[in-house]
Amino acid sequence: MFNKKNKHININIGTVIFGALFLYLVITVIIYLTADHISSYQVTSGPLSKNETYTALAMRSEEVVNATTGGYVSYFLADSSKVAKNGTICGISDTQNLLENKTLTSSDLAELRSIVSRYSKSFDGNDFNSVYDLKYSLDGAVLNTGDSSTIAGTMCTADSDGIVAYSCDGYEYLTPEELTADNFRTKSYKKNKLRTNDQISAGDPLYRLIKSETWSIVIPVTDKQTVRLASHDRIKVKFLKDGHSETGQLNLFVAGDQRYVRITFTSGMLRYCNERFLDVELVTNTKSGLKIPVSSIVTKEFYTVPVSLKTTSGENGEVGFLQEIIDEDGKITTSFIETTLYAEDAGDGSTEAVYYVDKDVFHDGDVLVQPDSNTRFTIGATATLDGVYCINKGYAVFRKISIIDQNEEYCIVDSGTTFGISQYDYIVRNGNSVKEEDILY
């Protein structure tokens, strides 16, 4: 006889758990790789596309004033200062200090101390050039005090009112018709500073006088840009240097074989009077709203139901309609059907205002009853809406949109659409990949 011994199989519980977890991960990965992936998009607010930026050439009514005699120059006005007609701008003498023999009274000194005090309160250590502006302000104040008979030199006065600038570049007398491509080569551009402590000769440039607040910028444009700008009589221009904007009159013209756009302003010249080239943004995309991908847009069909049939029920005031029900005995009753309203069409006077309701809620031929009335309505009329699927709550919900503008990839929709979407909502990027109330996560 043989003794049969029972064989015991030792099962390691850790191995079983590990195996189960491994199997679960394998199945999860397979499901993930084979499933359709829904891509979301967060709704943002803004224009359809960015405005184009350009480098513009500034043109003004300006002239360079030259010295009539040689010597050392003393300036009495700060750069970019306004000057009245016959106002003194500078003086030329045989000495470097034109005012060295000027006698000041106690009241004159008090006025100078006041100028220094005002300057010290607004001093910015990052703007050292303002120190020179203080010097010219003090010299100008000294010039206008006391007896001027002791001043030995030639006074240079403005022949008209305007803005004084102490730089020149040879573009002062350039007209739009004379423009060439070379005028826009910024790498070869040179600007000469006119304020100097050195002795000058007769005929040397002293200052630049800008005689009008009206000024313009000129930009070379392509044929495509010309077509896009041709519909504008006036246009808003954003200056990238400081973010300030001006609106000007737009004109297109041709010089040589190049097309240009000229934009004329009646304000803002003083801010850029020392700039010949300005980086600007032409604000042509003025339409703004909620920006969404075109691929998100779907068209859905709805039943249209008269607004007068709407009613509410329950403590929370659920919105819906009363549907007529006929039981097996032929008895007619009504049942409240809670309904999501997707849009409202107010009508045009000749047509009745209607709500758009989901076709899954009712069927053709269903009868709705107006509350507290014998008015009955048979379901059947339909209409379509453009919209997107909002997925803020993890499942797809249709939301109506009203398109303002669009291009091939994106569109701008109205942010104030009733039953619509809002900024920062999440929508399905490819609207045709889901259906109403699909659970996505």
TrEMBL record:
Entry keywords, A to Z: Membrane, Transmembrane, Transmembrane helix
Top-level taxon of the source organism: Bacteria
InterPro entries: BSH_RND-rel
Record-annotated RND related barrel-sandwich hybrid domain positions: 62-210
Transmembrane segments: 12-35
Name of the protein: RND related barrel-sandwich hybrid domain-containing protein
